[in-house]
Amino acid sequence: MKQVGVIGAGVMGEALIAALISYGVSPQSIVISEKRKERSDELTQRYAIKAADLAANVAASDALLLVVKPQDMAAVLDEIKGSINKSAVVITFAAGKKIAFIEEGLATGNPVVRVMPNTPTLVGAGMAAVSLGNGVTAHQAEFVSGFLAATGKVIEVSEDLQDAVTATSGSGPAYFFRFVEAMISGAKELGLSDEDATTLTVQTILGAAKLLDESGKSATTLRENVTSPNGTTAAALALFESERIGEVVAKAMKAARDRSQELA
Q: Looking at the whole model, is its pTM more than 0.85?
């Protein structure tokens, strides 16, 4: 790609800029369009990238990353459709917004790729799911998967599963953070200091995730391995089951999925 345009340079936009550079895209080939001048100046200085107004950026970019809020997408599409490079691949990161929505909003025939990332992208441990629209070339698909791999792991799914992806990995980090909050609070109620409760909880979660990722064993097997009959772990898990933890999680994920569908 001779030029990659990034529209919207918030936290996720910055993470994607870092991923592009890690993938091997020259900083001088990355051009951002950001309304907040102080933010634009900050990123151009930090990464040695360029900044340009929206029309000039989209006209010259071979790949265009739309990192804007779902509610702002229609206005952005209307603003860029008269200037966009007709051969550019458009990569959208907006939750709920379908490929058809982008195609109709542009009405330019540009190939579209839909991506659902998540916030661990910021530390190189992200999870991204990619769906390819009509006309996306093998080269364009390889480029998208390649730079996203610099942020963590990437899978390709059919677009009808993107709302399920949103409910699983897109919103998933927040479920995890809420559980950590609850564990820390519970540890403090048992008498531990805030500092010790946080250290114990965070390291336990990190270790468990690493074990799950690297052991090759399923979550079910690992849970069973640490649960002695009539032991302390069994007592805690029995309480989870009595409170129907599986049902609560499933309902929460369905709520996230339904909201993603509403954003379409």
A: yes
